[in-house]
Amino acid sequence: MTFNQLKKLSKQSGNDLPVIRVALLGDTATQLLATAIKGMGQYRNFNIELFEADFNQIEMQFFNKDSELHKFNADFTIVFQSTHKLLGKKTKDRLPLIKEILNSFKGKIIYFNYAEIDDSVFGSFANKLEMSFVYQIRKMNFDLMNLAIQNSDFHILDIASIQNKYGRNFMFSPAIYASTEMILSIDCLPIVANRIFDIICASKGNFKKCVVLDLDNTLWGGIAGDDGLENLKLGHGLGIGKIFVEFQEWLKKLKERGIILAVCSKNEESTAKEVFEKHPEMVLKLDDISVFIANWENKADNIRKIQSVLNIGFDSIVFMDDNPAEREIVRQNLSAVCVPELPKDPAEWLEFLYGENLFETVSFSQEDKERTKQYREQVERTTFEQSFTNETDFLKSLEMECEVEDFTKFNIPRIAQLSQRSNQFNLRTVRYSEADIQNLSNNENYKNFAFSLKDKFGDNGLIAVVILEKRSKELFIESWFMSCRVLKRGMESFTLNTIAKYAKENSFEKITGEYLPTAKNKLVENHYKDLGFVSLGAGKFELKICNYAERECFILSKEIE
């Protein structure tokens, strides 16, 4: 996207799009950045309601409780304090200000870190001198990262990395700065605005979960079936072979942070798997792949099979293939799937993909590291289920056991992450940060449940959350969200049995719920109706406890702590 394209988009109404309220504060001119943000919002399917503070009003807007910022009640507040404004000043004064903002302001903040300016006062010796501007800026960015670790609602917009990739001359125009106070160049505004929305979308649960990979000339050079194992271009020496090794190493890191890897290749399965099993230079192994499909069928159809097994949205999938024709077929048939237009030369792939920033996230938990294992177990369950003609017998055979607990310091990160990731099975689609979950755990007006499920194939981890607000004799389900990995296994009934048991034991007379439709949660449109709730109209439902009979399910319960 160019800035002019974003400018045109910014003028569109977007009345039919979800609304996001964004506040923008800066110590330099931000008018064109505001235009880019509004335009990029349209491009990313959001209607942006934007509050742009007057020039250099950051402190006033944050610390005055009657300010326009506080009245605006933004979903995301963007703060751009430029490196230029620190020239000739003490950078150490900036960090206490940011800490004070975080202590006094409740809400999600996207804070620009500091693009480096080498003032050449000390030359290379600046790296050895704490008083040098280069040293201070690098230390400031390090301190910002530590602040972000401690504050789940504080997100870093890494403009320093963007400048490292594209260059300072691309990011900054001295002539324009002199006449306009504008730090960011016109050309870089679309890139910066896109990174802002990477963070916003990840916070809203819109992010990529899976990479579907071609094999021949994608994971290695050459065609396994024609060239033979020993002639494939794959290795650490000079030449294109090392490029494929480095590409696999990057994919391996994605897998280790929780991105699912799948294979979709036109190939004989035995030939394709032989490379994983026997080639000494393969970084990726079969255990790294959650779903492996190698046949001669249409790739779009095979991606549909992968999506069905993993039970994720098509818009969560990235398809990587060296062949432009195959990429176009997938684009034409599966428009929601992200299909990067890989450069012709594989040597350029990684730098291209780094710039695309396809795998933004706002959280990372221990459970992410187990995701490939969990999805491989899901494939085993799916295969196992096909041997049964009776669903009840299948569910009994799984030997399921569910542990139910309150919110604890150990599960809070995963609960917040699941709230951000769950789109299809999410009745009200409320997103929670770790701080939000911590507050709920300490609030006596709420009762919270976290559900973890095991079966004979493995541990699914924490897969469902219910947040109940106590309203006199009523329990209102503020949130009920669940991983789609465990659909159709009786968890819905088990969860309601748990809620109803708590309601009876604590003299609540009814349970009420609400369904707020989104573009992605139609799956649970009839959820409350199917569970025996009575519709009250306008998406609201009610269940009288006196009439409740425990629903059948085949899940053993661990005692609630």
Structure overview:
With 561 residues, the protein is of the alpha/beta class. Helices cover 38% and strands 19% of the residues. The protein has 22 helices and 17 strands. Strands 15-16-14-13-12-11-10-17 form an 8-stranded mixed beta sheet, sandwiched between helices. A hairpin with a 2-residue loop joins strand 15 (534-537) and strand 16. Helix 1 crosses helix 2 (31-43). The longest helix is centred in the first third of the chain and has 18 residues, at 133-150. It starts with a helix and ends with a strand. The model has no long low-confidence stretch (mean pLDDT 93).
Q: What keyword list fits this structure?
A:
single chain; 561 residues; alpha/beta; eight-stranded mixed beta sheet; five-stranded parallel beta sheet; 17 strands; 38% helix
Cα separation of the termini: 53 Å
Shape descriptor: globular
Number of helices: 22
Sheet with most strands: strand arrangement: 15-16-14-13-12-11-10-17
Which sheet architecture does the biggest sheet show? 8 strands, mixed
Helix content: 25-40%
- How does the helix and strand content classify structurally? alpha/beta
Count the E strands: 17
Q: Which spans of ≥5 residues are poorly predicted at pLDDT below 50?
A: none
Mean pLDDT value: 93
The portion of residues forming beta strands comes to 15-25%
Radius of gyration, in Å, reads 26 Å
